[in-house]
Amino acid sequence: MKIFVWIALLVIWLRLDWLAGLKKNKKNYASPYTKKNAEATFFDDGVEWMKQLEDDCLNAVCTIDIMFFILQPDDAGQRLMKLLVKKAREGVRVRLMLDAIGSRSFKKSLKHIPHEEVIIQFSRPFSFKGSWFFMQKRNHKKLAVIDKKIAHVGGFNIGLEYLHLDPVLTPWRDYHLRLTGEITQDCQTEFERDWREEFVEPDSAGNGQYQLVSSEAVDQEAFICSLLQKASSSIFIGSPYFIPTQKVETCLFNALEKGVKLTVLVPGTPDHPLVQPASYRYLRRLISKGADIYQFQNGFYHAKAILIDGKLCDIGTMNFDRRSLLINEELNVVTEDVTVIHSLKTSFEKDLAESVKLKQGDLKVQPIKESAAWCVGHLL
User: Fold this and answer.
1) Which domain holds residue 297?
2) Sorted alphabetically, which Gene3D superfamilies does this protein's record hold (predicted)?
3) Which CATH number belongs to the domain containing residue 267 in this structure?
4) Is 147 a catalytic residue?
5) Which of 78, 239, 327, 368 could share a disulfide with 320, CB 3.0–4.6 Å?
6) How confident is the model over 278-293, as a mean pLDDT?
7) Active-site annotation holds for 44
8) CA-CA distances (angstroms) from residue 324 to 85, 321, 332?
9) Backbone phi, then psi, for 277, in 5-degree steps?
């Protein structure tokens, strides 16, 4: 009997901790970034993107500021570290910020990886300080700023799997942007906010086609709903994980009721065993209301993007799940630039051609497995 009492108390505490964490998390927003002028290059291939990042770092003359959720201690990670050490020895200030959990393998291997003169900092150490909610909070951003003039934002991390060298998850599909122009000032500000762990006021000037959207500056759940509500004809969502909040799911239902065509693309092969079954209840409900749901079949689909009416897109680090919407620190770019949107649409069409469209009966109900997966999977 006592064990059931303790379990009940634990469940109650976790629920109260969750609600308190959500409330506190929404009180700490910094100022949002304004729209800025920029030029962007779209990447959906990790090999091409990695080469561009390396070239930009090689040409750096003053500063290199890099932040990733995952940096693997494999050949890809060690190659980048050699480049960063080389630039640091040339007098370039190099700062590297990694999530303490996402890059835990790199942290453990650091004593065997040369990193002289590269300033390394690990964000969000996994330590319990009275709140399970904030213990889970991860820095999921992928950001690089070179000489304060070039920035990279998107879904790629650093590791062999992102270069199509994983035996199961190859080819790896992702979307990333290389940015130049005024928006790089905001990217630098975003890095400084995380590095210093303090508020840095963004530059409010500018009236361009690009906006940097940080989870420290906006309520991600409300922001995504505001994007979905703009749709009059179509919504395309690409995400490796699909576990929306009730508020976001309601926005999707409302769009379908208005006659908006909704297309969702998710992986066929998962990288986490619990996340995929946790998404089935949401995907089934959307299919029943007329949405088109596709599963990518050729490798692993890790891209995070939303396209509204073929005119407005959101690309970055935010997955379409509760962890990204409510807990994680995320960074996205929103733009109406027709060049980027054309590239994104072309990539979408290519990925859909290598996917299968799901029917209602394809996602069979498995109550115990799905419930267990939901309880754990929505926090992975």
Assistant:
1) 219-380
2) Endonuclease Chain A
3) 3.30.870.10
4) yes
5) 239
6) 94
7) no
8) 32, 6, 11
9) -65, -25
